[in-house]
Amino acid sequence: MPQSILIDTDAGDDIDDLFAIAFALLRPELTVEAITTVSSLSARRALLIQRLLDSARKSAIPVAAGCELPLRPVTEAERAMVAEAYRSNHAPAGDEQAEAALAATDAVSTIIETVNRRPGEVGIVAIGPLTNIAAALVRRADLASKIPYIALMGGEVVLTRAEHNISWDPEAAAIVLSAGVPIFLGTWDVTRRFVLLPEDLEAFRKSTAPLHRMLIESLDLWWPHRGGKPGPVMYDLAPIAWSMDRSLYATQPMTIAVETQGAHTRGWTVRVPGPANADVSVDMRADDVKALYLETLLGTH
């Protein structure tokens, strides 16, 4: 029986969210029950997800926009940044009504309702900051006992760095990691070992399939801002691929805490003494993951 999942994403920043979600939509081992968006301009992100679903002929999957600001204290500068993003970024022509409809949705309620509809069956895949998921766990105290697992891309335990999905909202991450739900933690250093290189993307560019066209159009908007990346670094594929085949990632049980106080280490994930609360990635079968991904995306059209 396919594994049911709900995907929570900040699609619209890095490109790997869209490429990873496309994989989830095409795998017979997975059933995507709903997709929720998080972080600033969440309705715009939800509109992007709706376009992806339409291109994959999966329009019936519910999409809901979620929390735009983190649970942590927010500075006035951050509030101003979000407000300015709304002033300077307008929905594409003709999409205003669709965006307004998505803005009226509630990701936190969608998470709660999806889990409660099938308790113990819907895994949560988190590929963005953990604000929506933490808010759902706080709103409904009994929710954690109904979630079979939370698979997330976030954090780092080997290199000394703050990873974005955790550091954007450390308080939310701390809530999720302490909720008692079984957790797969796909860390930054491991999940970055699969990259879609330009030569891998040529087959997408040659395809006329609507899903491929949508991915390439999104890629070309992202590419000028890629920095030093050689192509889409597929961090966010990890919790999705793990949900269907746990042998693709080697893990170790660890006790992970989120630093919420340190002046220079705030948002870091650190190993601490105590009972393990997460299975943390230590390696991945990178070649096999890449082959599986390309076969899935390119072998079905």
Structure description:
- With 301 residues, this protein is of the alpha/beta class.
- It has one domain (3-298): Inosine-uridine Nucleoside N-ribohydrolase, Chain A (Alpha-Beta Complex), CATH 3.90.245.
- It has helices at 16-26, 42-55, 76-88, 96-103, 107-117, 131-139, 164-167, 170-177, 188-191, 198-206, 210-222, 237-244, 286-298, and strands spanning 3-9, 30-37, 63-65, 122-127, 150-153, 183-186, 249-254, 256-258, 269-271, 278-284.
- Strands 3-2-1-4-5-6-10-7 form an eight-stranded mixed beta sheet, sandwiched between helices.
- The chain is globular.
Question: Could you please say which CATH topology applies here?
Answer: Inosine-uridine Nucleoside N-ribohydrolase, Chain A
Overall number of structural domains: 1
Q: Mind telling me the C-alpha Rg?
A: 18 Å
Q: How can the largest sheet be summarized?
A: 8 strands, mixed
User: Could you say which overall geometry the principal axes of the C-alpha atoms support?
Assistant: globular
* Number of continuous helical runs: 13
Task: Give a count of the beta strands, DSSP E runs of length 2 or more.
Answer: 10
**Fraction of residues in helix:** 40-55%
Query: Are there runs of 5+ residues with pLDDT below 50, and where?
Result: none
**Largest sheet strand order:** 3-2-1-4-5-6-10-7
Helix and strand content put the structural class at alpha/beta
The CATH architecture would be: Alpha-Beta Complex
Average pLDDT metric? 93
End-to-end C-alpha gap: 24 Å
CATH homologous superfamily - what is it? Ribonucleoside hydrolase-like
Question: What is the chain-wise order of helices and strands?
Answer: EHEHEHHHEHEHHEHHHHEEEEH
Strand content: 15-25%
The first-level CATH class name: Alpha Beta
